[in-house]
């Protein structure tokens, strides 16, 4: 057997940052693979692919579809595994989109850095090395995740991982689930397996349809102007990040019910940990009222993930009813 090849596709973000022309502020300037060039990555050929040099706030769904096709192309071109590097700000969304697209029969590994390569104590090189080691690990091939996120010596399912801190190197967590695995002495150790995927690989169903799903948060003393604006603005769906168990006020619930007559409305929780309620409270705006009005519970999926999922399902040519049923299934998959 020859030396394994890992394609490292670089999309900007802190892991690619260096001081800009003013010498002070950081901007994406280099391929992520540069952070390990010169170092040996034992017995691995690293194929560096520069995709973009941007902040992760610039990433679009159309770009992620093109990226998924490039990932397939790299594998067809002999790469044994693919690592994608990007800014950490939107990593929890794009990694989940890649996971749903499932371009490969083994997970794509996504990583980034919280501290730029030039910063003291940078995690850029260590995260990339950990991502490469994970990408090549035989047990990863058994994982049913379409993508995983490797940060701070932890391997997370793209479905559950969230960025929960603005600055620390341990910014990524999978709340109740915990990581899929960890790295000890640079070697991946898997702790558990995710259940099999509940959906087909969505890259194979991609239609190119431009789908817009809005995301709003429930807040104290909320009016309905933004919900009405969603109705007028041609959105294809709405995710409402409700309070606690997924709750809104009675006034907001009525506006959501009116919207749900036309487009899918999904309720998640602004608490960002734990499943939304489905069978406990019956006041106006509580979950039983929302469900009666046509809203769909996001289960344990945080609102950001629910928005990615609804967008990807509607892009994939499923009808509204099919998309809602598949969303419920994916949101509850793996909860026994
Ligand atoms: N703005 C950056 C981004 O592309 C910084 C965050 C990071 O990479 O950690 O998301």
Radius of gyration: 20 Å
Shape descriptor: globular
Spell the H/E element sequence.
EEEEHEHEHHEEEEEEEHEHEHEHH
Number of helices: 9
Derived structural class: alpha/beta
End-to-end gap = 41 Å
**What is the helical fraction, as a range of percent?**
25-40%
Mean pLDDT: 95
Biggest sheet strand order reads: 4-1-5-6-7-8-11-12
Number of strands: 16
What are the distinct ligands in this entry?
glutamic acid
Percentage of β-strand residues: 15-25%
Q: Stretches where pLDDT falls below 50 for ≥5 residues? A: none
Strand and helix layout:
Layout: E1 5-12, E2 17-19, E3 26-28, E4 45-54, H1 61-76, E5 81-85, H2 91-101, E6 108-111, H3 124-136, H4 138-142, E7 147-151, E8 154-157, E9 162-163, E10 172-173, E11 181-184, E12 187-190, E13 213-217, H5 225-232, E14 237-242, H6 250-260, E15 265-269, H7 287-292, E16 296-297, H8 303-315, H9 320-332
Helix pairs in contact: 1-2, 2-8, 5-6, 8-9
Residues 12-14, 55-56, 87-89, 112, 114 line the site of glutamic acid.
């Amino acid at each position: 057997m020859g030396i394994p090849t890992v394609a490292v596709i670089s999309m900007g973000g802190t892991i690619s940052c260096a001081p800009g022309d003013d010498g002070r502020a950081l901007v994406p300037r280099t391929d992520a693979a540069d952070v390990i060039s010169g170092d040996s990555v034992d017995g691995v050929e690293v194929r560096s692919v520069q995709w973009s040099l941007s902040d992760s706030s610039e990433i679009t769904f159309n770009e992620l579809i093109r990226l998924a096709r490039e990932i397939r192309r790299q594998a067809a071109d002999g790469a044994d595994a693919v690592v994608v590097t990007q800014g950490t700000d939107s990593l929890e969304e794009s990694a989940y989109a890649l996971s749903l697209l499932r371009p490969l029969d083994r997970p794509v590994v996504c990583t980034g850095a919280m501290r730029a390569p030039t910063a003291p104590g940078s995690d850029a090189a260590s995260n990339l090395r950990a991502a490469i080691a994970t990408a090549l690990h035989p047990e990863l091939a058994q994982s049913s995740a379409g993508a995983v996120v490797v940060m701070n010596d932890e391997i997370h399912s793209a479905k559950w991982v969230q960025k929960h801190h603005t600055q620390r190197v341990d910014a990524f967590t999978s709340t109740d689930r915990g990581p899929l695995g960890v790295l000890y002495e640079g070697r991946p150790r898997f702790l558990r397996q995710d259940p099999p995927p509940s959906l087909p690989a969505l890259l194979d169903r991609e239609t190119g349809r431009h789908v817009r799903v809005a995301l709003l948060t429930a807040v104290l003393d909320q009016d309905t102007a933004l919900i009405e604006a969603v109705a007028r603005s041609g959105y294809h769906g709405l995710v409402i990040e409700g309070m606690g168990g997924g709750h809104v006020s009675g006034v907001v619930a009525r506006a959501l019910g009116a919207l749900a007559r036309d487009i899918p409305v999904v309720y998640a929780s602004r608490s960002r940990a734990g499943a939304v309620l489905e069978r406990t409270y019956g006041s106006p705006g509580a979950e039983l009222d929302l469900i009666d009005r046509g809203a769909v519970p996001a289960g344990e999926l945080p609102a950001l993930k629910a928005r990615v999922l609804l967008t990807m399902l509607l892009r994939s040519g499923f009808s509204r009813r099919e998309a809602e049923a598949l969303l419920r299934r994916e949101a509850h998959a793996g909860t026994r």
